[in-house]
UniProtKB/TrEMBL annotation, chain A:
InterPro entries attached to this UniProt entry: CoA_activase_DUF2229 (IPR018709), Dehydratase_Activator_Redct (IPR051805)
Domain called DUF2229: residue spans: 3-198
Domain of life of the organism encoding this protein: Bacteria
Protein name: Activator of (R)-2-hydroxyglutaryl-CoA dehydratase
Pfam families tied to this protein: DUF2229
Biological source species: Thermobrachium celere DSM 8682
TrEMBL record, chain B:
Highest taxon listed in the record's lineage: Bacteria
Protein name in the entry: Activator of (R)-2-hydroxyglutaryl-CoA dehydratase
Amino acid sequence: MIIGIPNALLNIKYRDAIQEFFQNIGVTTFVSPKTNKEILDLGVLNCVDEACLPVKVFHGHVEYLRDRCDFILVPRIMKLQKNEFICPKFCGLPEMIKYSLDIKNIIAPTIVAYDNKTLKKSLYELVKPLNIKKEKFEKAFEAFKSNLYKYRNLDYKNSDLKVLLLGHPYLIYDDFINMNIIKKLKAFGVSVYTEDNVDFYDYTYRLIKKPFWTFLRNTYNCAISLIETGKIDGIIYVSSFACGIDSFSIDLIKKDIGSFPYLVLKIDEHTGEAGIDTRLEAFVDLLKRRAKNEYNFSTLG
Amino acid sequence: MNITFPHLGNTYIAAKVLFEGLGVDYTIPPLSSKKTLEIGCLYSPDDVCLPFKIMIGNYVESIQRGADTVLITGSCGPCRFGEYCELQKKILLSLDKDIKFIVIDEPAKIGIREFLNRLSMVAKDSKLSKAKKIKALSMAVKTINLIDNIEKECRFFAGFEKNKGEFARLLKTVKLEAIEAKGAEKTLKVLEEHYEKLKKIEIDNFKNPIKIGIIGEIYTIIDPLSNMYIEDILMNLGVSTRRTLYPSWWVKNTVLSGLKINFSKIYKESKEYLGLCIGGHARECIGEAILNYKHGFDGLIQIFPVGCMPEIVSKAILPDIERRYGIPILSLVVDEMTGEAGYYTRVEAFLDLIEGRKKLCI
Ligand code: SF4
Ligand code: SF4
């Protein structure tokens, strides 16, 4: 039996951990390749028009895997934090896939993982039908846990200009959708931080209501922390059109940071690379000019 | 203190009864219009969903008329509605820093006590006794149920009426008179009288009108501006429509979910497709689709705003229901740029299709 793992959405971030987990319990996996033109087109063709780009791309990956493996893993990720949610589209992903692609052989474990116990339970439910021995599962689970943070080692060389690259992990890690933005920034001599390779603090006390979206909370906290501690010179927010969560995060941050350099890049399947390049270049120029100007005033007072 | 609140269908009538019953100052925002939407778009982020923009428009128009306290509902579902209040608050404060807010959350989330606590903030200015306050609240609940029932029946029986336009006229006058009436009791009386009148309107049981179920995102299908008056248009064409998601339904559902009772048939029907709540009202949309089919409806119109996350999931599922049950479904996606002409053409074409099918069947 081969289980296909679509290389999209949060699977991108946890790909290695997932793969090794299955290996440890003796199941062969097949990961779809990095997003490419063919996969993107498959996704756009088969998904509901109104969906956001990452969800469309996910559809493309599933369609690609369709005849290449026996089952396809389409996790239904409900919660990664207690009392928080991720996105309605993640919760309804298996249904979207099932009915839009008319595909029956999907495995759709419900993942509620806000602590060790719940994560373990979710994974156990997933492998239960396979009759795996308890010890084997325990071992695979431990390995899975220690692998979860592997992706953190994004190297970044230290340059004078530091930019925080915000956005959902599946936009940041998918070079095809984000048009190689990290590489491009590096070529401009900018060092890039992302949510995953910095530590940040909780600033949500500034909001009247605790956010219940994990993505929103992380993005907000990360941006405010790094600005407050003076670690960065600018923020670039990569977002996809029609993302309901970003429509809030982008503005919540904007309203809080005053005139701090902030570039929002929204992408969908029609976005041209040239336009993005021009805007990136202009933004980096702005940062360089600001760095030269010695007034390094704090924008947050 | 002068309280205002966003429009949601007929709630303004119930709010009027509540605040007049309590003796608290209030401002009803002008009925949502193109202008409301323009104001809303001006102050809202581009990408946010349509209901957000219209609500901002409502607040601003009310504040211009003297309101200083804004009542916001933040239901804590995994959808944007729950995140609204934060950003809305920031936007309004940037316009006028003295605005106050009362956030009403779902009792299921914050507990019944805290819920009542916040509700009582609304009545802070009222000098009435506790018993009178509770009476005002119960009158408001009665109002919303009554007016929603009147509207529901008008919209359904419009297809069966003997003299064209009677139900439409009644629906129009009842709302006008209710809002003109002075005091909570009088308002309620207007509603009761019209409910009696409604029962006397002559109906032709041999008619066989087109029957359409309206499903989709709750705000959009309740708010006539968002759905471009779809129900009025269908009513004028002699089409019977039904929609379950009314403010009164929402009240009932919210309270019951606070008591952890899952009462509705809707959830039973939707189970096969969507077993759990994914936020918004996607489950209700699917459940309603199937229920409407079982009740012999001829077609369904799903309406949701651009970028609406849960309804995109429903839209992916609906084609399967269409195939399996053989009920035509039209999905309409709206935002501030939706052109009227194209919208109405699609509705008309859809009605033609259903009419054709109906003739074939007989
Ligand atoms: S969080 Fe945004 S980008 Fe991600 S799936 Fe949801 S709507 Fe799409
Ligand atoms: S259900 Fe749709 S319209 Fe309502 S808040 Fe969520 S995304 Fe917006």
